Amino acid sequence: MEISLILAATAAIAFAMMQGMDVKRIQITDPRIAEIGGYIHSGAMAYLGRQYKVLTIFVALLFIVLTITPGLGLTTALAFVLGALFSVIAGFCGMKAATSANMRTAQAAGQGPTEAFRAAFSGGSVMGLMVVGLGALGVGIIYLLNPGNLSVLTGFSLGASSIALFCRVGGGIYTKAADVGADLVGKVEAGIPEDDPRNPAVIADNVGDNVGDVAGMGSDLFESYVGCIVSALLLAAMSGGAEILPYILGLVAAGILSSILGILVVKMGKARDAQATLNLGTYLSAVLLVIAAFFLGWLLPEREGLLAFAAVVSGITAGLLIGRLTEAYTSDRYKPVQEIAASCKTGAATNILSGLSYGMLSTVWPILVLAGATLASYYFCGILGIALAALGMLATVGMVISVDAYGPVADNAGGIAEMSGQPDSVREITDQLDSVGNTTAAIGKGFSIGSAALTALALFASYALAVKLDTINILDPRVMAGLLIGGMLSFLFSALTISSVSRAANKMIDEVRRQFREAPGIMAGTQKPDYARCVDISTQAAIREMILPGVVAIASPVAVGFFLGKEALAGLLAGATVTGVLMAVMMANAGGAWDNAKKYIEGGYSGGKGSESHKAAVIGDTVGDPLKDTAGPSINILIKLMSMVALVFAPLFL
Q1: What pLDDT, on a 0 to 100 scale, did the predictor assign at position 572?
Q2: N or C: which end of the chain has fewer CB within 10 A?
Q3: Helices 477-518 + 153-181 axis angle, to 10
């Protein structure tokens, strides 16, 4: 079955290349589109180059640590390097495709909405296909070469997790520093549109959409995808369920093929209702996976096959439900966003209070869904059932990422259309596509949080088996201490990332104000802003500020396990998972709701653009930006990475 997995992974990579070539076939005839798109592309690639230089040092150091650690050795260290390398390749390819598709989407919008929609989705699908292709390929190769030593897979997963944390944190800091500076000085102080070319931070803002919402999001779900596969395989092997290993590998291969078919269906759709077309592809891939999971159950004895199928379906169902619940709290079609928009009439304070309260309220149903999926999957297959549920949720992640990455491509296309002075008809098309992208991005964040929770639980169970823990006694003072420390880490991590955005945004605001003050020709349209300076500010801040959160995430579990013992480390993982999931849901949904409340007002409600309500909404959106795009998504990786670090270094704690 591992050969089937490798073949399916290869097919995904080949299809990703075809999608990229489809995008490049669109000729850019407008020189202004090519110029602005070139700025964004070069800025994004320059950031990645500088980030990868720093990550190379980190990978080299951890490679040495893994090599000399008793119980791990060179094989695990090499698997770690492979996981890091594949994560980097997926991010690089996805970023390159997205920055190529954004200007071609703006160009294609002149031909009609369907052409623009297909260009944007094709660009986004490269990221989705590369994630599942490289993730499954790495697992398949290591499984094939080490059939009797599946613990080597933890090295591959650790490589994916480590790169994901730095990419998500760094990308989040970059994009929000630029976004906050562009909004507060450009929109609020100068009173110019969001993507006005006179705004010096506007190119950095568009670059940030790619490094945060494409490369960062892709690395996040690459980590979840690899982590859930590895945890399922390890739990099956450690609990004596080796007969289910072919089922797990077959399910991953089926998920890849289901995603490819879902992507093909979306590409054949029309842009009259882009949201419905994207939903159709998502649901179709999920249905195909359910069918495949049922027939793959024939690889197991009859009762075991049905129980494994039921566990997988519980995860698929939970993923779809969390996506819809997220939409209910973040889409302007529903009451929460409309009420947040209405609260802007009385100022920024009531807007922020309303958004925070709905963000907190939005945790209730997703947590109940996750609790239900956990109980159901455990009832069907024990601890292994939780890993199967996570696998069911993530098996079609190729389709999910394709839909999610479509959003920033469409957003960039709108910015390019605005800055290049395209006709109103073109901007209307890109605005329509961007509006759908905002909803898909919010749903994607909800999905990534849900999958992170189940993956973290599965990795936690793997750790417990690895260190021979049958129960965790919360009356044990070491466990209680670990619980408190773990619960605190989510708050510490959020504080570090949000304060990083604040410091970087302060520099960006000062720079934009300086340019407006010292170069009055910018506002008059006779002088070009210094875009490169703003891009450099975001790049430097992101590279510098991503280090400390990364060190905290990796060092904390090792320190607690080494000094306080394996029981305390189990408590830390439990505490971090509980507070991390709650905070991630709250911050992602509050930020998404503030963002769409602003766009709802810009659509003509509660006073419309330029009103006092709009100014209050911009402030709320600015507060929500680092919550939904930096701290919230980064916590997903925090809880998974700490569980993976605990699992990899388990031999030290025995």
Answers
A1: 94
A2: C
A3: 40
Whether 327 and 442 have beta carbons less than 8 Å apart is answered as yes
Task: Quote the tokens at residue 415.
Answer: 């910015």
Give the chain's radius of gyration (CA, Å): 23
Each residue's pLDDT tens digit, 615-628: 899 889 889 988 98
Q: What is the pLDDT of residue 10?
A: 94
Contact between 267 and 124 (Cβ < 8 Å)? no
What is the rounded distance in angstroms from the CA atom of residue 620 to the CA atom of residue 435? 18
Kindly give the parts of the chain with pLDDT less than 70: 187-188, 190, 194, 240-241, 271, 438-446
> Contact at 8 Å (CB) between 36 and 202?
no
pLDDT of residue 188: 67
Cα 81 to Cα 158: distance, rounded to the nearest angstrom: 9
Cβ atoms of 41 and 98 within 8 Å: the answer is: no
Structure tokens at 323: 């996506």
**Among candidate residues 209, 207, 212, 174, the one with its CA nearest the CA of residue 537:** 174
Sequence letter at residue 13 = I
Contact 504, 537 (CB under 8 A): yes
> What pLDDT does 445 receive?
66
Rounded-to-integer distance, Cα 43 and Cα 49, Å = 10
Query: Would you state the structure tokens that stand for residue 433, as one six-digit string?
Result: 């596509």
CB 627 within 8 A of CB 591: yes
Amino acid 574: pLDDT? 92
Q: For 138, which DSSP code?
A: H
Q: What is the distance between the alpha carbons of residues 271 and 432, in angstroms, rounded to a whole number? A: 9
Q: Coil, helix or strand for 362? A: coil
Query: How far is residue 460's CA from residue 635's CA, in Å, rounded to a whole number?
Result: 16
DSSP 103: H
Sequence-distant (6+) residues with CB within 8 A of 277 are: 117, 266, 269, 270, 271
- How far is the C-alpha of 448 from the C-alpha of 321, rounded, in Å? 13
Q: Count how many residues are written for the chain.
A: 654
Beta-carbon contacts of 88 under 8 Å, excluding residues fewer than 6 positions away, are 52, 55, 163
Q: Return the half-sphere exposure (C-beta side, CA atoms, 13 A cut-off) of residue 250.
A: 21
Q: What are phi and psi of 634, to 5 degrees?
A: -70, -30
Residues 6+ apart with CB under 8 A from 506: none
Give residue for tokens 């990796």. Answer: 554
Q: Are 574 and 461 in contact (CB under 8 A)?
A: no
Inter-CA distances, 184 with 119, 179, 403, Å:
31, 9, 29
Residue-wise pLDDT for 21-50, tens only, equals: 988 888 888 888 888 888 888 888 888 888
Among 491, 480, 514, smallest CA distance to 638 is for 491
- Helices 348-361, 335-343: axis angle to 10 degrees equals 160
pLDDT of residue 271: 61
User: Identity (one letter) of the amino acid at 290?
Assistant: V
**Both tokens assigned to 490:** 């989510």
Q: How far apart are CA 68 and CA 88, in angstroms?
A: 25
Find out whether 618 and 598 touch, Cβ atoms under 8 Å: yes
Phi-psi region of 604 (alpha: psi -120 to 50; beta: other; left: phi over 0): left
CB-count exposure of residue 489 (10 Å: 0-12, 13-18, 19+)? buried
